[in-house]
Write a structure and sequence with these properties.
Number of helices: 12
Distance between the termini: 53 Å
Shape: globular
Strand order of the largest sheet: 2-1-3
Order of helices and strands: HHHHHHHEEHHHHEH
Strand content: under 5%
CATH superfamily: P1 Nuclease
Number of domains: 1
Number of strands: 3
CATH class: Mainly Alpha
Structural class: mainly alpha
Radius of gyration: 18 Å
CATH topology: P1 Nuclease
CATH architecture: Orthogonal Bundle
Bound molecules: zinc ion
Length: about 270
């Protein structure tokens, strides 16, 4: 085993322990930080100012995974458990996002639409605590809807039931896409991810950030369908998978960041 492989093995082991308890719900911490960081770079001055006020001077990155933490802590009794289903939108094989029966407890599309509508009147109708909660959720859920396994099959719990190996280590398809693949593709900090991805023209930004949460969900779902076809249960994946899917991870982070910025500019700008 060369040094690089050893380091990779250590990183993978660390990641698998660190995220073992929270990988049910999100891109890993890194993905949400990257998306929030990209979005922060595209806020208008006015939006930045208003968001700053609501977040009490903390950054969007600071709060990008807040909802994962509160809903998994004992504080869920404060009502955050109602958001458990808001991180994803399952679509089983043989269905499309339009034909799949909706989760009566809510999904990432209904949650985002509700939050966008509510924040649209943030100056008049929302208390300070609801305002900050919805803003922190918006930052997070736009990220989640761009994570392919958050549009996975209900029958395998969004890929949790698809066992595979990643560089010889046991894992599942959901965890691969939330954290392991991201951490393997580049060993960058969230600012380095932003600096290396966020290089588009204004025209490209406008093009990528167009659309609605429904459109973005359908786009992610098409990617998810391809991943299910590509990834065979019990197979061991490594460099080839990384090579094929690194551009997809990078693009999903970038468009999620741009779309989040566009939404925030519309609401707060
Ligand atoms: Zn999440």
């Amino acid at each position: 085993m060369n040094t690089l492989m050893k380091r990779l093995a250590v990183i993978l082991l660390f990641v698998s322990f660190t995220f073992a308890s929270i990988d049910l719900f999100a891109w890993g911490l890194k993905g949400h930080d990257v998306i929030a960081c990209i979005a922060e770079h595209h806020l208008t001055e006015k939006a930045k100012e208003n968001i700053d006020k609501i977040l009490g001077g903390k950054s969007m990155i600071y709060y990008s995974s807040w909802i994962d933490n509160v809903q998994n802590s004992p504080y869920w009794i404060n009502g955050y458990d109602r958001t458990n289903t808001w991180h994803y939108f399952n679509v089983d094989e043989g269905f499309t996002p339009q034909t799949m029966p909706r989760n009566p407890k809510g999904d990432v599309v209904s949650a985002l639409n509700m939050i966008i509508d509510s924040l649209g009147n943030y100056q008049n109708e929302l208390s300070d605590s609801v305002k900050i909660d919805y803003l922190r959720m918006l930052i997070h859920f736009v990220g989640d809807m761009h994570c392919p396994m958050h549009v996975g099959h209900l029958s395998d719990k969004g890929g949790h039931g698809v066992r595979i190996k990643w560089f010889g280590q046991n894992t599942n398809l959901h965890t691969l896409w939330d954290t392991k693949l991201v951490e393997s593709v580049h060993a960058w900090s969230y600012t380095e991810w932003q600096q290396n991805l966020d290089r588009c023209t204004q025209e490209e930004f406008d093009e990528m950030s167009a659309g609605t949460p429904e459109d973005w969900l359908i786009e992610t779902w098409h990617i998810t369908v391809g991943i299910y076809e590509y990834t065979k249960p019990e197979e061991n994946y490594s460099y080839k998978y990384m090579y094929d899917y690194a551009p997809v991870v990078e693009r999903q982070f970038l468009v999620a960041g741009y779309r989040l910025a566009a939404l925030l500019n519309k609401i707060f700008g």
